[in-house]
């Protein structure tokens, strides 16, 4: 098991980073929130979870061990794989996700692409007593970001997370229509995710 990685950020995309560790570039799948905090050339440490499949070894990275542990815990539910678990953490910050599960908030869970009402109910049933909500665990408000030039990039990332092209385009359009924003692609993606989570 690879529990963590430390190294210089070689590249940072919307949903992945490449860390240079001992001369080897390690591709790590992350949430947009984690990716937005990493800059090329910066030294970074990620808590990681290695998912082994018959045909692949995939690393998923997280800002801290608590987020990684939640990622692994939600996968204990039947039908929840690593991609869906990562999508859950992309839509809901860890504290909000814990609160939704422990509080039985099926509506919040169904805002994650790939989770229907029955799936959300199963997650609540199986994890309600295992996942404790953290007091004051509300989603943090993110500063607005302008993504006009990056509209296609952000829409593509949302489609990659499981939303339809129309849903992705509509969400980006609503964020851009809300008013003037800075030119940060990551901020636009976070705002679009919040829009889709409503």
From TrEMBL:
Its main location: cytoplasm. Pfam families: HHH_5, RuvA_C, RuvA_N. Keywords: Cytoplasm, DNA damage, DNA recombination, DNA repair, DNA-binding. The keyword DNA damage applies. Transmembrane segments: none annotated. Residues 72-91, 107-126 form the Helix-hairpin-helix DNA-binding motif class domain. It is found in: Cytoplasm. Coiled coil: none annotated. Residues 151-198 are annotated as: Domain III. CDD domains: UBA_RuvA_C (cd14332). Residues 64-141 are annotated as: Domain II. Belongs to the RuvA family. Homotetramer. Forms an RuvA(8)-RuvB(12)-Holliday junction (HJ) complex. HJ DNA is sandwiched between 2 RuvA tetramers; dsDNA enters through RuvA and exits via RuvB. An RuvB hexamer assembles on each DNA strand where it exits the tetramer. Each RuvB hexamer is contacted by two RuvA subunits (via domain III) on 2 adjacent RuvB subunits; this complex drives branch migration. In the full resolvosome a probable DNA-RuvA(4)-RuvB(12)-RuvC(2) complex forms which resolves the HJ. The RuvA-RuvB-RuvC complex processes Holliday junction (HJ) DNA during genetic recombination and DNA repair, while the RuvA-RuvB complex plays an important role in the rescue of blocked DNA replication forks via replication fork reversal (RFR). RuvA specifically binds to HJ cruciform DNA, conferring on it an open structure. The RuvB hexamer acts as an ATP-dependent pump, pulling dsDNA into and through the RuvAB complex. HJ branch migration allows RuvC to scan DNA until it finds its consensus sequence, where it cleaves and resolves the cruciform DNA. Has three domains with a flexible linker between the domains II and III and assumes an 'L' shape. Domain III is highly mobile and contacts RuvB. NCBIfam families: ruvA (TIGR00084). This is Holliday junction branch migration complex subunit RuvA. It comes from Luteipulveratus flavus. The gene is ruvA.
